[in-house]
What we know:
CATH architecture: 2-Layer Sandwich
Shape: globular
Order of helices and strands: EHEEHEE
CATH topology: Alpha-Beta Plaits
Radius of gyration: 12 Å
Structural class: alpha+beta
Amino acid sequence: MDRVARRYFIRGRVQGVGFRFFVERVAHELGIRGYTRNLDDGRVEVYAIGTPEQLEELLGYLRRGPRWADVRGIDEQEAPVEKVSGFRIAW
Length: 91
């Protein structure tokens, strides 16, 4: 299975609503490695490594977000595959 990496920048009401914890749970369920973190400009960044199919499924979850989120848009970028184990919330 070829692994690829992507960075997602999620805009909207995504901080203070459990978005990072939601992403961490979904990533574990999907078998995706990487991290998520809040950005100073109010967005949430997700760095994810997985198969193209896993990342497509993750993107569907990111578009929805947790119950209290209001996702207004997602910018997606290809990224280099880094050596990362598991999936974590970066502080």
